[in-house]
Amino acid sequence: MNGPHRELTPEAALRLTLAAEPWLSCDDCFEQIDEYVERVLADQHMGMPAMHAHLAGCGACGEEGRSLLLLVAEDEGIDPGPGLRRLAAG
Ligand SMILES: [Zn+2]
After folding, report:
1. Residue 56 Cα, ligand 1 centroid: separation in angstroms?
2. pLDDT tens track of the chain, all 90 residues?
3. Which string of DSSP letters, residue by residue, matches 6-37?
C-alpha cells in the first residue's frame, strides 16, 4: 500500500520506474550521449541500457539525443530514420 499519496511528480515516477536500472544523472548522460548516438546509428547500442533508460525517461536528454542523432546522421550522410526508431524503441 502506498497510502493516499497518489500525485507523483514526473521526476518521482521516473525514479520509481528506473529503480532497477543503473541511474545516470543528466551530466553523466551528456558525457556519453555522443558515443551513445554513434552506437545507435551503428545499431551497436545494446550495451548501454542506462543511457537508453535515461533518454527514455528524461525529456530534455531525449530531445538532445534526437537532435544529436539527426546532426550526426546528416554529417555522416546516412538515413536517420532507423536510428531514430532504435532511439525510441531501445
Ligand atoms: Zn537527463
Report:
1. 9
2. 555 566 767 776 666 555 545 579 999 999 999 999 999 999 999 888 889 989 989 999 999 999 999 999 999 999 999 999 999 886
3. ----HHHHHHHHTTTSPP--HHHHHHHHHHHH
CA of 52 to the centre of ligand 1 (A): 11
C-alpha grid cell, residue 32: 556519453
What is the amino acid identity at position 17? T
Burial 12-33 (b: 16+ CB within 10 A, else e): eebeeebeeeeebeeeebeeeb
Indicate the domain borders of the chain.
Answer: 31-89
